[in-house]
Amino acid sequence: MEIWRRLAADTPAAHGPNFSRALSNLGARLAEVGRRDEALTATAEAVEIYRRLAADNPAAHEPDLARLLSNLGVRLAESGRPGEALAATEEAMEIYHQLAVDNPAAHEPDLARTLSNVVSLLPEPERRGEALTATAEAVEIYRLARGREPCRPRTRPRHLTDCLGHASGEGRHSFRGTTRHWGGREPLSQPRGHDALLTFTTSRRTRPASRSA
């Protein structure tokens, strides 16, 4: 790790990506053994490296920046910092939105997963409307992908199932190994919630404008 740090200090463009990936891998390993504070520190440093790289060359580095921001959201959530976790995950979502405008096939799966993570972190019931909108978008991404590849098995991805469960009012939602529960509202039946979302996506789908060069 220290070798990568020295190399990245001397030539950031050449060695910064490898150093950042090494930090991200270290963060994942530290999290696996319960060293959450150290995992968070390593992941946050990886994000800052890619933030600088993406500022100089967005096309080359924004996909990795979005991925690392999503990882940072996980580390923050594991550390009991849901507000900061949501901010990092929403930043990743915005980057994936822009990337998916130019290349949907490559980036919409990551966008859908990130939307699911955003839904899991939005406070209930204050932002349930935003959770429903994000869930509807994830549903439509899945439907469009299924239409592009009709021969693939039609098993619903787990992240989409989680989103639908949350929007249907089932009162629980998983986020990368953690489960959140909400009380105080009557659950809808699952088919009713699913149908509402599918109807919603046929009549309302917004895409952000492509970013100016």
Summed up:
This protein has 213 residues and is mainly α. Helix content is 73%, strand content 4%. It has helices spanning 2-10, 12-32, 36-56, 58-78, 82-102, 104-121, 128-148, 158-167, 190-203; strands at 172-175, 178-181.
Structural commentary:
Helices cover 73% and strands 4% of the residues. With 213 residues, it is mostly helical. Strands 1-2 form a two-stranded antiparallel sheet. Helix 2 (12-32) runs antiparallel to helix 3 (36-56), helix 4 packs antiparallel against helix 5 (82-102) and helix 7 packs across helix 9 (190-203). The longest helix is centred in the first third of the chain and has 21 residues, at 12-32. It is globular, with a radius of gyration of 18 Å. Residues 177-213 have low confidence and may be disordered.
Q: Helical proportion?
A: over 70%
* N/C terminus separation: 35 Å
Strand order of the largest sheet: 1-2
Structural class: mainly alpha
Note the total helix count: 9
Write a concise keyword list for the protein shown above.
disordered C terminus; mainly alpha; 213 residues; single chain; two-stranded antiparallel sheet; 73% helix; globular; 9 helices
Helix and strand layout, with pairings?
Elements: H1 2-10, H2 12-32, H3 36-56, H4 58-78, H5 82-102, H6 104-121, H7 128-148, H8 158-167, E1 172-175, E2 178-181, H9 190-203
Antiparallel strand pairs: 1-2
